[in-house]
Amino acid sequence: MTVKLKPRLAGVASLVPSGTVVADIGTDHAYLPVHLVQEKACPRVIAVEKSPLNSRLAQETVNLFNLTHKVEVRVGDGLLALDEKDGVEIVVIAGLGGKTVCRMLIAAANKLRSYKRLVLQPMGDVPLVRRWLAAHGFCFARERLVQEKENYYEIIAVEKGRQIVKEPIFLEIGPALLRERDPLLIPWLKHKLEHYEKVMQGLLRSRNGKEDPRWRYFNFQYDRLKGVLEDVCRGE
Predict the structure, then answer these.
(1) Judging by DSSP bridges, how do beta strands 90-94 and 117-121 pair with one another?
(2) What is the pTM of this model?
């Protein structure tokens, strides 16, 4: 019996190198750890959950697939639940808010560079996460876009190294997404532009209209995104 992941988690798994020791922070039902053991030959996965209730649900999944010898469910607070002797090579944080991801990274900043790769899939505030990573000695090794129904998800894989981000807009889009020309890049950019249009239309109906600082911000971002989309469509 094997576990079948939905596109979002399957995209996360695709950026985890085969045969590595992994920690899945905020593992929820532990479907990702089970998949990594079954499909990517990961010899050991530590599944971390802060909530004792969620950790019990994760343990039930591990028991169901008879993988207690390879997947350890651990109750703890983010990366602080990990120890050097665990030998973790890859850290996954998927399905948590971007601000929460940043707080976890800050709390464990002194140990982050001991890992070969961080695979992050924030639920919102993705530019904030990219900005923190670029400012703290990480380069964007890989990035992927995944679509589930009408929702797009950004998945970021970073490694130790220096990252020069020439324009702030590239923190909004993702340097590796542009570099690799992700297959979903064009529809995703169009989706973002449509979202910005709706936000700006709503702000125009407010008291301050175009004088609202938020409208000016979104208008600026809209123009930059539109320029990037045009460049991508031209193959530049």
Answers:
(1) parallel
(2) 0.94
